[in-house]
Amino acid sequence: MPAPVRAVIVGGGLAGVSAAIVLAERGVSVTLIEREPVLGGRISAWTEHLPDRTAFQMERGFHAFFRQYYNLRSLLARIDPARRLLTPLSDYPLLGPGGARESFVGLPRQTPLNLIALLARSRLLTLRDILRADFRTGLQMLAFDGERTYREFDERPAKAFLDGLRLPPPARRMLFDVFAHSFFNPEDEMSAAELLAMFHFYFLGNPEGLLFDVLNEPFSVALWKPFARRLEALGARVLLGTEATRVLPGAGGWRVHLAGDRAPLPADAVVLAVTVPALQAIVADSPALGDAAWRARIARLALTRPFVVWRLWLDRPTAPGRHPFVGTAGFGLLENISLFHLFQSECRRWAERTRGSVVELHAYAVPPGIEEAAMRAHLLAGLHALYPETSGARVLHERWLWRQDCPAFAPGSSADRPGVETPSPRVVVAGDFVRLPFPAALMERAASSGILAANTLLARLHVESEPLWSVPRRGLLAGVMPDACRAKRAASRDERLRETRSARYSSRAQRIP
User: Fold this and answer.
1) In this predicted model, what pLDDT tens digit does every residue of 194-252 receive, in sequence order?
2) Pick from 64, 204, 257, 387: most CB atoms within 10 A?
3) Which residue range is the domain that position 392 belongs to?
4) Is 285 in the same domain as 424?
5) pTM over 0.90
């Protein structure tokens, strides 16, 4: 930094920590505040106890570290240069009724060979099914282009797009519905453009393949304590149990006001990296932030339906050969099953000591009106159907989490979604709900937004930014498929030339300028 700069990062989740590290490494005086007593936000972990008083780390559910999470992995390299934290999974099958099974092992990484191989080896699709499908609609999955795709498909629900493929119900359920549900939004309440972006990011535009890695330690041990030590070594302050209430103008910058009787924090720059409800509350109580149009956009942000995480400590092991993680389809509300004793050291030690198992069940986009008892019955029925050895198991301990704090990606919401920049000088926003100029999702979206927020501040200070990487930003057919919205009017010569120049496709990871 050419001169001292004070930055206050509001929110200690993945987006906030990412921004804090990038800024602190460049000499910014960083203060990171987090309302909860632990870092991590929506992927935090905290200490609880089993009935025998054994301490364990509880989390908000299984998380996959896909190999195209380039920006998140660059942050992990700060605390794990030897790359010991992540364990690769050999496969994560999709399981359906009647023994239906799909796998992602051995698929080519090159588009469109990966899609052709997946469809060709699926037992749920015949050649007649493929010929009956809507070929033109299917090609849109290979033609992702940020601007065109959102312009043409954002108003449509994801369910309408999937219906338009005209696939047999079993194949659609196994190959598409499982994938769509992974983003917490129900298909009829999710933008088709967002779904196409996820298809591109995770499969059709992903040069790393569909397999992923998992943390072999709890999040608190593997991530958040090392990240806290990293920040402190860089001279940053980490204030836990500290809630920001408003951001008001101060002498030459801003003042971040805190709950209780705590003194406000002076700041030259502010990063708001909190959940949607927390951001809305701060903005509503900060009349000097942004302008009327931006404040209205923040107020219109919404959350999607709740999700459930149910972790069970069982008195018997699961059968040999089970996978650490499987996706499920056709078993009611059950979305996936994780066997934590097969990959996480803490759970493995407990299972070895007790000859038991630690099983986690997930349900996403829980329908309104369903009672907890019915939810439990749905999830257990799916577990017992797929893993019969658990049907007679005794539950020694359990943790039931019902949460509703994930962002909604409703049809028509993309153009209204805020980006990282705000109308206020040196105030930026980060989180997995912001609009990014490249494809990303879930943890990678949060980490990327934090880095982009830091880079935005650094650019204004004429300081070198942190590299950002992405999967190819356009699909294989992005320059080929016509734009239905613009077909009604003739494109100008300049537009045609620009599109021709940008139509080149690369199957490699791309650095974001």
Assistant:
1) 999 999 999 999 999 989 999 999 999 999 999 999 999 999 999 999 999 999 999 88
2) 204
3) 305-403
4) yes
5) yes
